[in-house]
Specification:
The complex is a heterodimer of chains A (453) and B (234). Chain A is α+β, with helices and mostly antiparallel strands and 453 residues long. In chain A, strand 6 and strand 7 form a beta hairpin. In chain A, 52% of the residues lie in helices and 20% in strands. Chain A folds into 3 domains: 154 residues, Beta-Lactamase, CATH 3.30.450; 60 residues; 145 residues, Heat Shock Protein 90 (2-Layer Sandwich). Chain B folds into 2 domains: 118 residues, Rossmann fold, CATH 3.40.50; 95 residues, Arc Repressor Mutant, subunit A (Orthogonal Bundle), CATH 1.10.10. Helices cover 38% and strands 20% of the residues of chain B. Chain B is built from 8 helices and 11 strands. Classes of the chains: A alpha+beta (453), B alpha/beta (234).
C-alpha cells in the first residue's frame, strides 16, 4: 500500500468492520435471547390456559371441555399446537390445529418435568415445544399424571429475526459506507496540499516552475522553504561554477594568445617555434574542450527552465549570416510548431551553434534546419533537430569516429569533427540521440533528439 | 587602412600593434573600454579589433556605444570566451566577426582584410578594377598579365583606392588613414606617391586609372569587376 490515504482508509475500514462485526453479533445474540424468552412466556401462558380449560372426563382422562378459548388451537396449521398424553405415551387429546399431521411431540418425561425444547414436528415444522408433566386430581384422592405439550411454530420468529438481521446489516452497511466515504473526502481535503506540493515538484522537475509556491499549510512551509533554498543554492552553485570556469578559460587563453603573437613577431622561424605553436594548439584544445564540457550543465540542475528553440535559431542565423556574409548562403529554418528544449540555454546555443557553423562552413550554398516534436517519443527525446547542408557530406570513417561514445572532442584536430564531437557530448549529457546521415540536399544530415516539449 | 586595437593585455596589444603595422596597417591602440570609445569616436577608422573582456567598459558596451554614435566601420571581436552564446551576443551588439583566443596572427590579418574588403563591397580576396587586379592575400598587383612591383606605401594607397573604387577620397583622408604619424596636411607626399603609382600602372598615360578631382581628392575611375554588394554596413 503506497498511498497515505489508501493506508488510512484500509486501516479504518478494517477497524470499522471489526467493530461493527462485534456489535452485530452482540445485538443478534440479545435479540435471539429476547425472542426465545418471549416464546417461552407465550407457551407458558398457553399451557396455563389449556390446563385451565381441561376437565376430567368419563375415562379418567383430562381434556378441554367445550370450545377452546384460543382460536389458533382450533384452526388447522395456525402455528400453535397442543397435545395431551399419558405418561406411557398414549395420546389423549390433540388440538384441532394439528389436523392431518403425523406429529411426534417426544417421548415420556419424568414426573414434574417442565421442558422447553426445539423440535421439528411432522418432518418439516420447526417448532418450540413446552412439555410439562402434570399431576392431576381426577377424583378425590385419585391423582394421575398427564403430559401436556404446547408448541408454537418458529417461522414467524425466524422471519422476524431475519428481518431484524437484514435491517441491522443494512443500517451498519450504510453507516460503514457513509463513514468511509466521508473519511475519504476528508483525506482528500486534508491531503490536498500534499498533492499540490507533489504537482509543484513535478513542474519544477519539468522546468515549468522555478521554485515551490509559498502558499503551503504550516506543516509544509518548512519543507517548501528548504526545497526552495536547495534549488536556489544548486542553481547558484552551477552558475558560480560556470563563471569560475569561464574566468579560468579566459585567464588561460589570453596568456596563450600573448605567447603566440610574441612568437609570430619574431623574425627567425625555427623548429622551436613550431613545437611551441603545436603545444599552444594542444593546450588550447584542452582548455576549450574540457572547460566547455565541464560548463555544460547537461540537465543536472533541477528546476531547469525551458528554452524556445526557434527564436534562438533565428538569433544564431542572424549571427552566422554576418560571419559568412562574404558567401551567399541560404539558411532555412523549418518549424511546424512552437517547440521548447528542456535544459540549459547555453547548452542549446553550443549545440546548435556548432551544428549550424559546421553546416555553413561545409555547405555549397544551402543549409536547412528542421525543428519538430515527436509526440510518441518519451520526454527525453521529444525535441527533434535536423541540420542539413548541400556540401560534400561526412565520410563514413569520420562518422564512426564522431559517434564513438567517449571519444574526446579534443582528439579531433579539425574539420567537421571538433564541432560534432562537442555536439555529441552535449547530446550524451542529456541522454539524447545523435545520427549522421546523408541529406537530400546532397550533403550531411545531422539529426539530434533531445528532451523537450 | 587605419585600425584600432582595444586590448587590455599589454604584451598582446603591443605585439599586435607591431605585427599589424608590419602587415601594412596604420594601427591605433587603446587599453580599456573608455579609451577605445574615445578613439573610436574621434579617429577616422577603417576597422576596430575589440577584446570583449575589457576594464572600465565591456567590449559589448563599447561596440553598442560606437554603433549608437553612428560609427559603421567593421568590428572584429577577440574573445577568450568562445561559447556560442557569447559570440552571438557580440555579433548582435554590432560586431561583424569574431576570433577566439589564442589565434594565429596570420588568421587575424586574413579576417581583417576580409572585413575591409566586405565593407568596401568586395567579397573576393582579389580586387579587380578594369585591367588592374590586386590580390589582398599575397599583395601582388598586376595590370593585365604583367605583375607590377609596388613599394608597400604605393600598395597601401592603391589598395585603399581600389577597396573604395568609384568614391572620391580626399588627400587628408588618405593621409590620416595611411600614416601613423601626423603629417602636415599640405605636404605633397601623397601627391608624390600617386604620381609614382600612375606611372607604374599606366606607363603610356593612356587610360588615367586614378583621376584627380581638383580641391576634392582622388578617385579610382576603372569599373569594378564585381558590383558592390548589398551590404549597407552598420
Amino acid at each position: 500500500m503506497s498511498s497515505l490515504s489508501g493506508r488510512l482508509l484500509a486501516s479504518v475500514s478494517l477497524l470499522l468492520i471489526l467493530f461493527f462485526g462485534v456489535t452485530i453479533a452482540a445485538l443478534d445474540a440479545v435479540f435471539r435471547d429476547l425472542s426465545q424468552r418471549s416464546i417461552g412466556e407465550l407457551l407458558d401462558a398457553q399451557l396455563v390456559a389449556l390446563l385451565a380449560a381441561c376437565e376430567p372426563d368419563d375415562h379418567g382422562n383430562v381434556q378441554p371441555a367445550g370450545a377452546l378459548a384460543e382460536a389458533r388451537l382450533r384452526q388447522p396449521g395456525s402455528g400453535l399446537y397442543a397435545e395431551i398424553r399419558s405418561p406411557d405415551g398414549k395420546l389423549i387429546w390433540r388440538s384441532p390445529s394439528l389436523l392431518g399431521n403425523q406429529i411426534d411431540f417426544g417421548g415420556p418425561v419424568a414426573p414434574g418435568a417442565h421442558n422447553l425444547e426445539q423440535r421439528t414436528l411432522g418432518g418439516n415444522l420447526r417448532t418450540m415445544v413446552l412439555t410439562s408433566s402434570i399431576n392431576w386430581e381426577i377424583a378425590k384422592g385419585a391423582n394421575r399424571q398427564f403430559i401436556f405439550s404446547v408448541a408454537t411454530s418458529l417461522a414467524p420468529y425466524e422471519a422476524q429475526l431475519a428481518r431484524f438481521r437484514s435491517q441491522m446489516l443494512g443500517w451498519f452497511l450504510g453507516l460503514f459506507v457513509l463513514l468511509v466515504g466521508s473519511l475519504a473526502l476528508l483525506l482528500r481535503w486534508a491531503l490536498a496540499p500534499l498533492r499540490q506540493i507533489e504537482a509543484e515538484i513535478g513542474e519544477v522537475e519539468a522546468g515549468q516552475r522555478a521554485s515551490l509556491s509559498a502558499s503551503q499549510p504550516r506543516e509544509l512551509l518548512g519543507l517548501a522553504a528548504n526545497m526552495n533554498a536547495l534549488l536556489k543554492s544548486e542553481r547558484q552553485r552551477v552558475e558560480r561554477y560556470r563563471n569560475t570556469l569561464g574566468n579560468l578559460a579566459h585567464s588561460l587563453k589570453t596568456p596563450l594568445a600573448v605567447i603566440r603573437s610574441t612568437l609570430a613577431g619574431e623574425s627567425a622561424i625555427d623548429r622551436r617555434h613550431e613545437i611551441v605553436n603545436q603545444q599552444i594548439d594542444r593546450m588550447n584544445a584542452i582548455v576549450q574542450h574540457q572547460l566547455k564540457r565541464a560548463a555544460a550543465s547537461g540537465g543536472a540542475v533541477v528546476g531547469q527552465s525551458t528554452v524556445d528553440v526557434v527564436p534562438l535559431l533565428t538569433e544564431l542565423r542572424a549571427a552566422l549570416s554576418k560571419v559568412y556574409s562574404n558567401r551567399d548562403l541560404l539558411i532555412e529554418i523549418i518549424a511546424a510548431e512552437r517547440v521548447a528544449f528542456t535544459g540549459d540555454r547555453g547548452d542549446l546555443f553550443e549545440l546548435l551553434g556548432n551544428l549550424l557553423d559546421n553546416a555553413c562552413k561545409w555547405c555549397h550554398s544551402r543549409v536547412r534546419v528542421t525543428v519538430g516534436r515527436a509526440s510518441q517519443a518519451d520526454a527525453r527525446t521529444r525535441l527533434q533537430l535536423t541540420v542539413e547542408d548541400d556540401g560534400a557530406g561526412i565520410a563514413s570513417v569520420h562518422r564512426q569516429r564522431i559517434l564513438e561514445r567517449g571519444a574526446r572532442a579534443d582528439e579531433h584536430v579539425d574539420g567537421q569533427g571538433l564541432g560534432l564531437a562537442m555536439v555529441r557530448e552535449i547530446v550524451e549529457l542529456y541522454d539524447g540521440t545523435l545520427e549522421i546521415g546523408d541529406s537530400l540536399l546532397g550533403g550531411a544530415r545531422v539529426s539530434v533528439c533531445l528532451p523537450g516539449r | 587602412m587605419r585600425i584600432l586595437i582595444v586590448e587590455d593585455e599589454q604584451v598582446l596589444r603591443e605585439s599586435l600593434v607591431t605585427q599589424l603595422g608590419a602587415a601594412g596597417f596604420n594601427v591605433d591602440a587603446a587599453a580599456d573600454g573608455e579609451e577605445g570609445l574615445y578613439a573610436g569616436k574621434e579617429y577616422p577608422l577603417d576597422l576596430a579589433i575589440i577584446d570583449l573582456g575589457l576594464p572600465k567598459m565591456s567590449g559589448i558596451d563599447l561596440i553598442r556605444q560606437l554603433r549608437g554614435a553612428g560609427r559603421s566601420f567593421p568590428v572584429l571581436i577577440l574573445t577568450a570566451r568562445d561559447r556560442w552564446q557569447d559570440k552571438v551576443e557580440g555579433l548582435q551588439s554590432g560586431a561583424d566577426d569574431y576570433l577566439a583566443k589564442p589565434f594565429h596572427v596570420q588568421e587575424l590579418v586574413a579576417r581583417v582584410q576580409a572585413l575591409l574588403r566586405r565593407s568596401g563591397g568586395w567579397s573576393q580576396p582579389v580586387l579587380q578594377c578594369g585591367d588592374i587586379s590586386l590580390d589582398t592575400r599575397s599583395q601582388v598587383v598586376s595590370v593585365g598579365d604583367t605583375v607590377v612591383e609596388l613599394t608597400s606605401f604605393e600598395y597601401r594607397i592603391l589598395e585603399f583606392l581600389m577597396l573604395r573604387a568609384g568614391e572620391v577620397i580626399s588627400k587628408a583622408e588618405l593621409t590620416e588613414r595611411l600614416y601613423a604619424q601626423d603629417f602636415e596636411r599640405d605636404s605633397n607626399v601623397i601627391e608624390v606617391f600617386i604620381g609614382r603609382l600612375r606611372r607604374k600602372l599606366d606607363p603610356e598615360g593612356a587610360r588615367q586609372p586614378i583621376e584627380t578631382l581638383r580641391g576634392r581628392g582622388y578617385r579610382l575611375a576603372l569599373t569594378r569587376a564585381e558590383e558592390p554588394g548589398a551590404r549597407a554596413d552598420g
